[in-house]
Amino acid sequence: MNIHEYQAKELLAKFGVAVPQGYAAMSVEEAVEASKKLPGPLYVVKAQIHAGGRGKGKFKELGPDAKGGVRLARTEDEVRHAAGEMLGNTLVTIQTGAEGKQVQRLYVTDGVDIAKEFYLALLVDRATGRIAVVASTEGGMDIEDVAHNTPEKITTITIDPATGLMPHHGRAVAAALKLEGDLAKQAAKVLQGLYNAFLGTDASQIEINPLAVTDTGQLMVLDAKVGFDSNAMFRHPDLAELRDLTEEDPMEVEASKYDLAYIKLDGDIGCMVNGAGLAMATMDIIKLHGAFPANFLDVGGGANKEKVTAAFKIILSDPAVKGILVNIFGGIMRCDIIAEGIIAAAKEVNLGVPLVVRLEGTNVEEGKRILAESGLPIVAANDLGDAAQKIVAQVKQAA
């Protein structure tokens, strides 16, 4: 689960991390009122969407010469103008894709004079199973470009969970950022706050870009991106309330209501599978036969009829889907339950695309019998290869 920048900064401030004063705004007038609460004379008006590259982005509704989603303002009128151009319009950045995202929230912060910018992030290193600290002197830039062009400017430090964060980690980060004296001490303090926030919120990523030295010699977080482990949200109901459903794909939101693992993709063959590994194999074999999957959907090992019906309806709600492949290996999940769910969903949504079903495992013969006697145009498959060939052929034939 991701949150907005203003939410991330409010959260980090609770862990003692220095951030500029700022206020969220949902309307132009709220943005102006927010600026009145700030010392000024420089304000920063920032579009709040779950995507990076906002400053370099462009609004679909505005001309090519219009400014992006991060703007400086020196008067209330300039704040009003910036807010008026952003709110309700669609911001397209390198991370949103061509469709962009509509801006519904703003963040008005106090402007600061920057002496130097850095990059600092905490994330889970899956190779070591530890929290990794990534630091670079090249703040304010896309870290992917830095990694590609000048990898020597990136330092990665892993933290042993048995010892936790130690003083030498703070010194190592300060050295990586080439900070000395008081700034080195501030860097260690910032790292401690970020580490405490990471553990305390079950975060999956905390990215600070930039972490800046101000003209007054203070190390301050100017932008923050925070994501959480969704599997741990039951421990953090206060954080779950920060979720902005308008920033997420509607089908993924609907899937989360039924505890379904669903990710929308760009293809036209919908997939319903039980088990993440089997789902990956199913998508791979679809591509092997010259087509592309429309989604990743894992109904899990213990799905019931209602859950399967919901999964089927979510797949069919995608207008890009031209055919569906159901691939179920019944272990804990019984094939007859899958068959009943498929039939119930197909009848409810008036199935209008080819459907190929491959069942194997517990109660497989009963499941096949239920499908065969349903009266629906369901194509049975013997194995995964056969299923992929048949759905690709059916979709091409229908086209």
UniProtKB/TrEMBL annotation:
The protein's enzyme class: ligase
InterPro entries per record: ATP-grasp (IPR011761), ATP-grasp_succ-CoA_synth-type (IPR013650), ATP_grasp_subdomain_1 (IPR013815), Succ-CoA_synthase_bsu_CS (IPR017866), SUCC_ACL_C (IPR005811), Succ_CoA_ligase-like_bsu (IPR005809), Succinyl-CoA_synth-like (IPR016102)
Pathway entry: Carbohydrate metabolism; tricarboxylic acid cycle; succinate from succinyl-CoA (ligase route): step 1/1; One-carbon metabolism; formaldehyde assimilation via serine pathway
Signal peptide from the UniProt entry: none
Coiled-coil portions: none
Chain residues that bind ATP: K46, G53, R54, G55, V112, E117
MF terms (GO), sorted A to Z: ATP binding; magnesium ion binding; malate-CoA ligase activity; succinate-CoA ligase (ADP-forming) activity
Cofactor annotation comment: Binds 1 Mg(2+) ion per subunit.
Cofactor(s) this protein requires: Mg(2+)
Keyword Protein transport among UniProt keywords: no
SUPFAM superfamilies per UniProt: Glutathione synthetase ATP-binding domain-like (SSF56059), Succinyl-CoA synthetase domains (SSF52210)
UniProtKB keywords: ATP-binding, Ligase, Magnesium, Metal-binding, Nucleotide-binding, Tricarboxylic acid cycle
Domain of life: Bacteria
Catalytic activity, EC: 6.2.1.5
Catalytic activity: succinate + ATP + CoA = succinyl-CoA + ADP + phosphate; GTP + succinate + CoA = succinyl-CoA + GDP + phosphate; (S)-malate + ATP + CoA = (S)-malyl-CoA + ADP + phosphate
One Pfam family in the UniProt entry: Ligase_CoA
Ligand binding (substrate): N274, G331, I332, M333
Every ATP-grasp domain range: 9-254
GO BP field: succinyl-CoA metabolic process; tricarboxylic acid cycle
Annotated residues for binding of Mg(2+): N209, D223
Subunit note: Heterotetramer of two alpha and two beta subunits.
Function of the protein: Succinyl-CoA synthetase functions in the citric acid cycle (TCA), coupling the hydrolysis of succinyl-CoA to the synthesis of either ATP or GTP and thus represents the only step of substrate-level phosphorylation in the TCA. The beta subunit provides nucleotide specificity of the enzyme and binds the substrate succinate, while the binding sites for coenzyme A and phosphate are found in the alpha subunit.
Family, as annotated: Belongs to the succinate/malate CoA ligase beta subunit family.
UniProt-listed PANTHER family: SUCCINATE--COA LIGASE [GDP-FORMING] SUBUNIT BETA, MITOCHONDRIAL, SUCCINYL-COA SYNTHETASE BETA CHAIN
Name used for this protein in its record: Succinate--CoA ligase [ADP-forming] subunit beta
Organism of origin: Allosphingosinicella flava
